[in-house]
Amino acid sequence: MKNILVTGGTGFIGSHTCVKLIENDYNVIIMDNLSNSKAETVDKIEQITGKRPLFYKADMLDTSAVEKIFQENDIFAVIHFAGLKAVGESVQKPLEYYSNNLTGTLNILSSMKKHGCEKIVFSSSATVYGIDNKAPYTEDMPTSATNPYGYTKVMIEQILHDLTIADADFSVVALRYFNPIGAHKSGLIGEDPNGIPNNLVPYIAQVACGKLDHLRVFGNDYDTPDGTGVRDYIHVSDLASGHIAALKYSECNKGFRPINLGTGKGSSVLEVVKAYEKACGKEIPVEITPRRAGDIATSFADTKLAEEILHWKAEAGIDEMCADSWNFTLKNL
Ligand code: NAD
Ligand code: UD1
Question: Could you confirm whether 149 is annotated as catalytic?
């Protein structure tokens, strides 16, 4: 069985990917400092799959802790989720974001090189398309960013690209995620942000269960069918399957490959509200407020490359995503 090191494996997307990896007969080793997740997630992964991943509570900024994992295990490939991800916080704490995301990644890559591990799947983001490109986004578009979080993704992609030029044996797949939502069907794992959520669906979930009283819709004057922002929401379990496809691709292809993971379809804020109301059987009160700084009107993926080279396609629609989010919310009140 191949050993896969999953950095950030107790997080939202990482935990769903660990489940898929185990279901696909990979041996999972998680490294996470638990700065934005809980150790119990390891138990939940075991409950779902019947197999307990090996867990290291370790910080990727700690070079000796990273090195120890590579010394103790023969790592076949790395799936690298670990990172800080809140856009607003990154504007307040740029040094923390650059240090954690960039230095952490460099530490992982140094240990990989030292131990002859040459395959990595990296969590990039649709945020690298910046504000000047127009949806549908294709992987050949120029990348840019508008905040430190986004720049960490642009810079890490550059570092990974440079690495594959210097070392022709390296295989890098940078997966550009669109908007992951939903939760595992069991309701055991899902997205559980600390404090008041920034993202749409976790916010709606808290309105639906009465923790927050209404949703603020950030602008209804965009050039979109109903005036509210349009995004490409993708079920986190579909996203997790995309990582298995990327891993398989990296087993027979070298070089740097950025690939979009989205559905190719956009939903507006009001369409998501409607789908969530259907899922929870309650009305979600909304208030229209001014636009949020930094938001764009429309973002969705061109999914051709993922279909062609990964042979992967997202399956779940927005109703299923909202139903699974609500199931998780109810089971974790
Ligand atoms: P998450 O916060 O749930 O998971 C990230 C995990 O990394 C957390 O468990 C956290 O404890 C861990 N971590 C952070 N810094 C660490 C460090 N120094 N050492 C060890 N562990 C560390 O986030 P997520 O939503 O699962 O996102 C995973 C990745 O995908 C991130 O890189 C994120 O930027 C990227 N991404 C997420 C989204 C999204 O909407 N969720 C969209 C695009 C890209
Ligand atoms: C945000 C980040 C992006 C990151 C992504 C995933 C910003 C500007 N962008 O994307 O970099 O990769 O999360 O983590 O923060 N909305 C509301 N009310 C709310 C929350 C959101 O109306 O309370 C609207 C937004 O204006 C947007 C849509 O819902 O139109 C989706 O928002 P969100 O879930 O925050 O994702 P993005 O803005 O696409």
Answer: yes
